[in-house]
Amino acid sequence: MKALLLAITVSFSFVAHPQYYYKDIIGTKESSDLITSYRNNNLQGRLTNDDRRELAADWEKRLKNKPGDSVLLQRIQILKDTTKNVNVDSLGWQDFRVASFDNNNYSSVNEYDSLQNAVPEGKKNNWLMKQLIRQSIKANKKYGNSREGVNSFKDSLIHKLPYLLFLSLPFFALILKLLYIRRKNFYYSDHAVFTLYHYILSFVLMLFLFGVSALRDWSDWGIFNLIVILLFFSWPVYLYLQMKKFYQQSHLKTAGKFVLLNVLGFITIIILFVLFLLLSFFQI
Questions:
Q1: Based on the structure, what is the number of domains in the chain?
Q2: What integer pLDDT is reported at residue 95 of this predicted model?
Q3: Maximum C-alpha span of the chain
Q4: N or C, where is the chain less crowded by C-beta within 10 Å?
Q5: Residue 120 belongs to what domain range?
Q6: Full-model pTM
Q7: Strand, coil or helix: what is 140?
């Protein structure tokens, strides 16, 4: 169960790094407005030499804050190479919205509500879909084509991951109680203590993970990716060894219960993660 949470954390860490997210939207408002004007003027995003110099200067300022951003450096080099024609799409830019739950671009919540009122009763969106679409309209209106909305959503979700761990603790202990229900000498409190100790290690590993991720972003060294992988696999290995030591059963029984624990924990974490995902989305 913890391995899944670590995988979620690692995935957000990789997405945040430009090397693994090449379709990066133009970050600053000036660049975003410039790109939008090219498209609106039906120029197919083609950049003139003046446009290229303006964008290159803007991105060079960003590069000072992110010296290890290889994608940004590559884009600047493309812009400065005047022997080749450059358009918007060749820079890895894509039109981006915070969220969209249907193919319609509503200008306001009132517009969406009016259209829903005109739809026959059986074809209207359900309550949850209505809330999601309304929130997406608000978010897209607030952030527009800026990546700020995605960053806000991502940061909100990542900051809630420790709370997800705390909330999953009693469920984890309950699963252990059910797996060892024949062991009358173990009470729910014993499983809770075992879980608490394991969660302490989980937070320590997450601390190391964020530290290694920060070093990777700063240095752009591939060796830190290997360390992340080692941290990932150390999590389930430690859990298995602790189950064997604490409950003192054979390797076969421990392995079977370890698999069941992770399957049931996977389902629990997915349910909790979806709830936290929705909570983070409605808070951006």
A1: 3
A2: 46
A3: 78
A4: C
A5: 109-143
A6: 0.57
A7: helix
Q: What angle do CA 45, 55, 25 make, to 5 degrees?
A: 65
C-alpha 270 chain-centroid distance: 14
Rounded CA separation 182/49 (Å): 76
| Res. 41 pLDDT band, cuts 50 70 90 | very low
Classify the phi-psi angles of 42: left when phi > 0, otherwise alpha if psi is within -120 to 50, otherwise beta: left
Alpha carbon distance 263, 244 (integer Å): 18
Measured between alpha carbons, how far apart are the two ends of the chain, in Å? 27
Summary count for the chain: helices (H), strands (E): 10, 0
Same domain, 180 and 275: yes
Beta bridge partners of 231: none
Number of other residues whose CB lies within 10 A of the CB of residue 188: 12
Structure letter (DSSP) for residue 124? S
224-241 pLDDT, tens digit per residue, is 888 888 888 888 899 999
What is the DSSP code (8-state) at residue 87?
Answer: B
Q: What is the amino acid identity at position 118?
A: A
Question: In this model, does residue 109 exceed pLDDT 70?
Answer: yes
Q: Are 53 and 81 in contact (CB under 8 A)?
A: no
- The reply to whether 172 and 257 lie within a common domain is yes
Alpha carbons within 13 angstroms on the beta-carbon side of residue 168 total: 29
Would residue 277 count as lying in a domain?
Answer: yes
Residue type, 35: I
Burial of 75 (0-12, 13-18, 19+ CB in 10 A): buried
* Residue linked to tokens 């309209």: 137
Based on the number of CB atoms within 10 Å of its own CB, is 192 exposed (0-12), middle (13-18) or buried (19 or more)? middle
Count Cβ atoms within 10 A of the Cβ of residue 73 and give its class: 0-12 exposed, 13-18 middle, 19 or more buried: middle
Do residue 162 and residue 228 come from a single domain? yes
Tokens standing for residue 209: 């993970």
Are residues 152 and 277 both part of a single domain? yes
